[in-house]
Amino acid sequence: MKSAVPTVQAAALVLLCLTACRRDVPEEPASGAHTTPFILDLPANFPVPIIPASNPLTEEGIALGRRLYYDTLLSRNGPFEGFACASCHHQATSFTTPTAGTNVLAHVNLAWGTNFLWNGKVCGTLEDVMRFEVEEFFQVDMAELNAHPDYPQLFQEAFGIDNITSDHVVKALAQWFRRMVSSNSRLDRHLRGELLLTPEEMNGAMIFLSEVGDCFHCHPLPLMTDNGFHNIGLASTFGGFDVGRFAITGAPMDMGAFKTPTLRNIALTAPYMHDGRFQTLEELVEFYNSGVQHSASLDPLMTKPGPSLTLGLTPQDKANLVSFLHTLTDEAFLTDPALGSPF
Ligand code: HEC
Ligand code: HEC
Question: Which residues, 6+ apart, have CB-to-CB distance to 277 below 8 Å?
Answer without folding.
Answer: 234, 271
